[in-house]
Amino acid sequence: MIPKKSNKTVNYIITGGAGFIGSHLARYLVGQGHSVGIIDNLSTGNLSNISDIKDKISFYKLDILDGTIEDVIKNSDGIFHHAALVSVPESFVKPIEYENVNVLGTENIFRLAKKFHIKTVFASSSSVYGNTKNIPTPESEPLDPVNPYGITKLKAEYLAKEYSKHCDIVGLRYYNVYGNTMVSSGTGVISQFYQSIQNHTPLTIDRNGEQLRDFVHVQDIVQATVSAMEKNTGSGFINIGSGSTMSILNLANLFIKYSGSNLQPILREQKEGNVLASQADVSLAKKLLSWQPQTTLEDWIKNLYKS
Q: Which 8-state DSSP code applies to residue 54?
């Protein structure tokens, strides 16, 4: 369900607002009549993602480690912190860069949130759980990430706990996010399968393809994220996923089925740092945010290939 348009104009800042999730969030907030400022250094984000709202937002090409972002943030009513590096394979190659952006950059945002008493909702990740024993996984599950990316997100959560003593900070543990504008990006298994279909190349799958993932649509992410800002939940961490799972092999077969392709999946060796199963227990999100996912992955794939 899409919330009714707000009668109150609020001044929000979105870090990473030219990225996949951030741009969808910005577009929604603009549609609600709010004032939106975007901070993005465009290292991974792209201005084309916000070209349709460029005249309705304020854009600042700044790095979240840059001290001048204080002038942009200080008068805001709320911060959505989405600026991050998010590739698991790349995090093994560039661990220092991931530490700088995802940990030190995040601390800079939290420091400003504390200084100006601004509520902050930030993008954490299901990667903080690692290979969890409980599926679906509640927020109380022990945290044991298995890759450098997940470790940086866990460190960000430790910082959130510390800074939340001074202002509200809500960490949303996003699961595997997908959406139409992501399929051409080349990152993530959904994008990879889509590109393989487009290029008529085999869909490659790690291990046996039985790994389970919880895929959640970006518009569902946006609704949960806005609700986390608007509702008085207090500080803490909340799972945001579909609450269901799909195996990677089944995902590949759905792409093949609905695209009408005759390609067959090819199995390869398991990549380092990938978990075997991931599924969100979204009970807390439903309770605190009055939210639940609306889009199913199979329906989305089916619509993707409708003529």
A: T
